[in-house]
């Protein structure tokens, strides 16, 4: 049985990890401050323990003083809009506290593997096609700027045998999770076309890669189970080359399945534009995503009828 600590385990990706790992020989400890007032309906068991805590608070962090096979770092204010809305909270959590927690784990050496979830948003706006991990980063939002700083901090730590960090630059996630985020492109487009039968798309010709949340869970499992020499101090783009799409292409795929009307707006709200290369993760970790955009859309359509209070299902407003 592997003992895994997930910092920020009650979010969109954390819940997908819980669902996937609950069927495996993994014992999860989830540490989260439930910043969106999200409800955690999962029961503590010998395979899952929830600790309510804030990475900004030293006394809360004392509650997680064990040895772990892996620590997965997901905690933070996630996404461009929410970090622009709460700039100070964002830098307190995504930079100051994140750095402090990583320093502690490094000092204690209590995690055999440390997995930091970063983002392809770090590439910002780029004309070059198929950006590899070595490409220059041009973060645009406070969200991505913090991720770039933390990546640099981790890679700058002096190597030692009991700290084995891996950085995964996730593509934009999609698909259903028990903590749903309808503020993510595929999920939001599906919701708008299904509920309102109408969708507005800005920056419709901008490119971005996408990956299903279940595939991210499979990738994290691969990192945990791989030999350290393949993963330590490595950065991987996480996704697949064939899932780079423009927003217009995503809209068209969804419209094909649901119908409705799409309006393409001239105004620009999000200048991010990047096509990413995922050959490294495929070659070294043999990672190939299984779930298509269409699978994700159909899965959301099955569940969406029971979702209410859409304004709470996403990263819109933090608790005061
Ligand atoms: N969802 C995506 O498309 C995507 C893409 C690239 C990278 N990522 C990365 O994956 C990770 C998880 O993203 P997500 O989509 O699940 O976001 P999310 O907002 O659903 O989850 C983040 C979790 O962190 C918790 N949290 C926030 N501040 C905290 C604090 N101070 N102390 C403890 N917990 C705190 C929140 O309560 C939430 O449960 C993030 O690091 C994000 O940058 C996500």
How are the secondary structure elements laid out?
Elements: E1 2-7, H1 12-21, E2 26-32, E3 48-52, H2 58-61, E4 68-73, H3 80-85, H4 87-108, E5 111-119, H5 142-155, E6 165-170, E7 172-174, H6 185-195, E8 198-201, E9 207-212, H7 213-225, H8 228-231, E10 234-238, E11 244-246, H9 247-258, E12 261-264, H10 279-285, H11 293-304
Parallel strand pairs: 1-2, 1-4, 2-3, 4-5, 5-6, 6-10, 7-9, 8-12
Antiparallel strand pairs: 9-11
Helix pairs in contact: 1-7, 4-5, 6-9, 6-11, 9-11
Bound molecules: nicotinamide-adenine-dinucleotide.
Nicotinamide-adenine-dinucleotide binds next to helix 1, strand 5 and strand 7.
Give a verbal description of the structure.
- This protein has helices at residues 12-21, 58-61, 80-85, 87-108, 142-155, 185-195, 213-225, 228-231, 247-258, 279-285, 293-304, and strands at 2-7, 26-32, 48-52, 68-73, 111-119, 165-170, 172-174, 198-201, 207-212, 234-238, 244-246, 261-264.
- It is of the alpha/beta class.
- The chain has a domain at 2-174 and 210-238: 3-Layer(aba) Sandwich (Rossmann fold), CATH 3.40.50.720.
- A seven-stranded parallel sheet has the order 3-2-1-4-5-6-10, sandwiched between helices.
- The longest helix has 22 residues, at 87-108.
- It starts with a strand and ends in a 16-residue tail after the last helix.
- The model has no long low-confidence stretch (mean pLDDT 96).
